[in-house]
Design a protein that fits this description.
Number of strands: 10
Strand order of the largest sheet: 1-10-9-6-2-3-5
Function: Hydrolysis of 6-phosphogluconolactone to 6-phosphogluconate.
Distance between the termini: 24 Å
Number of helices: 7
Catalytic activity: 6-phospho-D-glucono-1,5-lactone + H2O = 6-phospho-D-gluconate + H(+)
Largest sheet: 7 strands, parallel
CATH architecture: 3-Layer(aba) Sandwich
Protein name: 6-phosphogluconolactonase
Shape: globular
InterPro entries: 6-phosphogluconolactonase_DevB (IPR005900), 6PGL (IPR039104), Glc/Gal-6P_isomerase (IPR006148), NagB/RpiA_transferase-like (IPR037171)
Strand content: 15-25%
Radius of gyration: 17 Å
Order of helices and strands: EHEHEEHEHEHEEHEHE
Bound molecules: 6-phosphogluconic acid
Keywords: Hydrolase
């Protein structure tokens, strides 16, 4: 059974980014101590990138053997490989370029100068995921490898990754990756994991700050329909953790704010 959401609240976006970064480093180090490697799925967006920058600044960054971390992305803007809009490029600038990575473990989505369109890039990413699932022994039927921690931002419309309310991507149940056309958040063409692929992750951490996110966060945690409120459909296998600042947490249902539902920091 997948995990019901828990909520952790920090005072402001800077503290939130630093706290989430420390939590990620500790989690990756613990996973590596247990089985040598760890897999994280990155997100784009302001806090997702701020969090990566904070990982680079954390004293504990050396606790992780970054050459044995597998990196995937939850979504990507379908633009040229060297466009500053690319989530990959932003993640590299914020953190990845400073780490000693194994390039074979880094899995960016295809770019607009490599594929004819978002659908072709999505199909190629689905193949890459399936191959990684085969290699990591996830089983003959597995379409995605084991994701230990999957990071998500959330939009003011409650989108997650590039799954927007009422659009085809959030309704997709067969595929693991979709091309997105006509995204309300620019750029209009994107590639995204689907909700099923996202929810295969052991732990999902949704990171959000600022008052423009409060309504979306509140609706998602109140149990709205995922087609209208995509973030409401997010459930990790073991943990669904909302990492919020006080402004983004303004409309969190009170029942989720009692001591029992708050994870230990
Ligand atoms: O590529 C993207 O744009 C995303 O991955 C997207 O899902 C993002 O995480 C949210 O829109 C939050 O972004 P902000 O934190 O910048 O509002």
């Amino acid at each position: 059974m997948n995990a019901e959401p828990t909520v952790s609240i920090q005072a402001d976006p800077a503290i939130l980014a630093a706290t989430a970064a420390g939590r990620l480093v500790a989690k990756l180090a613990a996973l590596q101590a247990e089985r040598g490697e760890a897999t994280v799925v990155l997100t784009g967006g302001t806090l997702g990138i701020a969090m990566l920058a904070a990982v680079g600044e954390a004293e504990s960054v050396a606790d992780v053997d970054w050459s044995r971390v597998n990196f995937w992305w939850g979504d990507e803007r379908f633009v040229a490989k060297d466009s500053p809009d690319r989530n990959e490029l932003q993640a590299r600038a914020a953190l990845l370029d400073r780490l000693a990575l194994d390039p074979a473990r880094v899995h960016p989505f295809g770019a607009a100068d490599e594929f004819t369109g978002p659908d072709a890039a999505a199909a190629a990413y689905a193949d890459e995921l399936r191959e990684a699932a085969r290699v990591d022994g996830a089983g003959a039927d597995a379409a995605v490898p084991r994701f230990d921690v999957l990071l998500l931002g959330i939009g003011p419309d409650a989108h997650i990754a590039s799954l927007f309310p009422e659009m085809a991507g959030i309704r997709e149940t067969a595929r693991t990756v979709v091309g997105v056309h006509g995204s309300p958040k620019p750029p209009p063409e994107r590639v995204s994991l689907t909700l099923g692929a996202i929810n295969s992750a052991d732990e999902i951490w949704l990171v959000a700050g600022g008052k423009d996110k409060a309504g979306a966060v509140g609706l998602a945690l109140a149990g709205a329909s995922p087609v209208q409120v995509p973030a409401a459909g997010v459930r990790g296998r073991r943990q669904t953790l909302w990492l919020l600042d006080e402004q983004a947490a303004a409309e969190v249902p009170r029942s989720l704010l009692d001591g029992d539902s708050r994870p230990e920091d």
